[in-house]
Amino acid sequence: MSIKGLAKDTAVYGLSSIIGRFLNWCLVPLYVYLFPAEEYGIVTYLYGVTAVMLVILNYGMETGFFRFANKDDNPERVYTTSLISVGATSLLFLILLTIFLKPISNGLKLPDHSLFIWLIGATVAVDAFSNLPFAYLRYKNRAWRFAGIKLINVALNIGLNLFFLLLCPWIEKSNPGLISWFYSPLGGFSFGIGWIFIANILSSYIILILLMPQLMGRRWQFSGDLLKKMLSYSWPLLILAIAGMLSQNMGQLLIPYLFSNEEASRAMVGIYGANMKIAIVMVMFTQAFRYAYEPFIFSQARNSGESSAKMYADAMKFFIIFGWLIFLGVMFYLPVLRYFIAPSYWEGLQVVPIMMAAELCFGVFFNLSLWYKLTDRTRWGMYLSLICFATMLGFNIWLVPLIGIPDGYMGSAWAALISYFIVMLLSYFIGRHYYPLPYEIKRIGAYTAAAGFFYVCGMLMGGIFPLWVTYCLRTVLLVLYIGVISYFENIPVLSHLLRKLSLSQR
């Protein structure tokens, strides 16, 4: 796979990721207008718990599958061994959750919402198992099928949310007999955010059915020796991923434990989570890149030499270029984008630039991870993630209470940016020793400086000119950034046009 192939697959995976996240993003106004911040805070909090549990139940097997499928003579055996292992642990998790549901609910500070926790746990168990068939589609370069099923998942989730939260209350008033058989036993509209979790679990189980072609009709093989090798490779990645996911969701998970006022802390989590949805564009880009990048680096690992090293370096450069383009686009048009959330949540908009910069640093950190994945030094990934987790935990415990109610979430945002920046630098300098690559640091630094200059100019305009003039000028700045990149990177069409313009002026 070439850089063009990586870009194409990133675009296809991005189709499912960006469109899917965007459509789910459109549900945020529904949630924040229907539910108060303290209730939406429960949703944000449980989604943070879900993200961590999903990582635990996958225990690095996704990356392990890519690594061993590309080096083993029998990739089918690698796939089925992974499926059996993850399937067994997911089932065990669901059984233990059911048995110990009450103490788990108390530990999560949600003793009155045990059903919500069981629903989210059952969804996680299915999603953890489904991740491997999705990984198999990526391994086979079936990006369009991957994207199609992901989009179906999004459509189902959105459709079920609209059905339970909007259509059912209307039917309950006009013709309750149509839905009373399933709607009333759970409490009807008063079940509230519970319907969000019902929609999640239904869509996840339907998607598992759609993935059956990747599960059926194959020769199932299980190798204990192979699993030991995969676990030996993957367990540091598990620690890495857990620490990374805890870091990504640190604010949502930690804030309820830092304040005695539960209602106020849940409201902060709700405001923080709602505003992070605006910054999610950067997360979508990073995720789309990740889907294409892991198969890319392991396939390129078969070809040693300068060409592979140059491709890795180019991938980093273009990731940062597009990352800053997304940052500028969101920040320049934030006065419009803010309407995706209710005005009562706007006080949290100040976290958006900080979290977008943090997510860009995290994306660079992920990009740098190839040095320890390709050299089988995955323990370094574990060490770096633990450093990130410890740093972020420390800054959260210090900054969040220091800032206090109601803006304590700003401490979480700054903690994320500082921590990701630190581990990004550490990974770069350590990677130079074990797997040096010809990264164009000066050029990347120049593009970063240009993006920073355009950002400052764009923000200053907001207090000087009328809104429509500000938007026009910010659009010009965005075009200038694209033009600078196109000129120096020889991007077809644009660079040719810019060179013609520069020659004509001479």
Using brief descriptors, characterize the structure shown.
single chain; 506 residues; mainly alpha; globular
Percent range for helical residues? over 70%
Mean pLDDT: 83
Overall strand count: 0
Shape: globular
Gap from first CA to last CA: 41 Å
Content-based structural category: mainly alpha
The largest sheet, given as strand count, sense and whether it forms a barrel, is:
none
Low-confidence stretches: 500-506
Strand proportion, as a percent range, falls in under 5%
**Continuous helix count:** 23
What Rg, in angstroms, do the CA atoms define? 24 Å
Question: What are the secondary-structure elements, in order, as H or E?
Answer: HHHHHHHHHHHHHHHHHHHHHHH
3D structure, described in words:
It is built from 23 helices and no strands. The protein has helices at 3-25, 27-34, 37-58, 61-69, 75-99, 101-107, 114-139, 143-174, 180-183, 194-210, 224-248, 250-258, 262-276, 280-300, 306-332, 334-337, 351-368, 370-374, 378-403, 409-434, 441-461, 467-489, 494-505. The radius of gyration is 24 Å and the shape is globular. The model is unreliable at 500-506 (pLDDT under 50).
Q: Secondary structure elements and their pairing?
A:
Layout: H1 3-25, H2 27-34, H3 37-58, H4 61-69, H5 75-99, H6 101-107, H7 114-139, H8 143-174, H9 180-183, H10 194-210, H11 224-248, H12 250-258, H13 262-276, H14 280-300, H15 306-332, H16 334-337, H17 351-368, H18 370-374, H19 378-403, H20 409-434, H21 441-461, H22 467-489, H23 494-505
Helix pairs in contact: 1-8, 1-14, 3-7, 3-11, 3-13, 4-5, 4-7, 4-11, 5-7, 7-10, 8-10, 11-19, 12-13, 12-19, 14-15, 14-17, 15-17, 15-21, 15-22, 17-20, 19-20, 21-22, 22-23
